[in-house]
């Protein structure tokens, strides 16, 4: 009987990207979400860093989130295609105190959509994070504009976040995971098309020549 209940439990491993310009707080958001820590003194991420968050989603579902913290200076480089591979969700982060980081959001989203898709061909679910909201002098009345921007660019939605004050970090992650789980037909499947595997292997081989091991 116990064996039967265990077999009903679903376990998922989701690769989630955290991308955006240099210094917008990507590492801080991940550290807050995974370890409940915050520091003013994180060093700039070089290349890619990883963190794992295990979520007991409900009594039948265990979710392991593999969060890929991709350095801002890596943007649109040749290696991003390798970094993005097999991701099923993404956060795009900008700093509310630096307009230039918001202006780069569309480029990040376009880069993401052009390099990774779900198994069914749809764009991967992505959420926009307006980070460092604790530094805003007043709560901006741009909700309508942000809602429209997300609709126009294909984001599921957006959250004002603060890794420092722990504002909306868990909520944003839960929102993204809910959308990933609702995409059952788009999640990676064990049975893969032979041609697809062959194509993937060729792609990796070609890109690994210009990248590092």
TrEMBL record:
GO molecular function terms noted in the UniProt entry: GTP binding; GTPase activity
One of the protein's GO biological processes: endosome to lysosome transport
Protein location: Endomembrane system; Membrane
Coiled coil regions in record: none
Gene Ontology cellular component annotations, sorted alphabetically: late endosome; lysosome; membrane; phagocytic vesicle; trans-Golgi network
Primary residence: membrane
InterPro entries: P-loop_NTPase, Rab29/Rab38/Rab32, Small_GTP-bd, Small_GTPase
Matches recorded under Pfam families: Ras (PF00071)
Membrane topology: Lipid-anchor
Keywords assigned: GTP-binding, Lipoprotein, Membrane, Nucleotide-binding, Prenylation
PROSITE patterns the record matches: RAB, RAS
Role noted for this protein: The small GTPases Rab are key regulators in vesicle trafficking.
NCBIfam families per the UniProt record, alphabetical: small_GTP
Family: Belongs to the small GTPase superfamily. Rab family.
Protein name: Ras-related protein Rab
Species of provenance: Gouania willdenowi
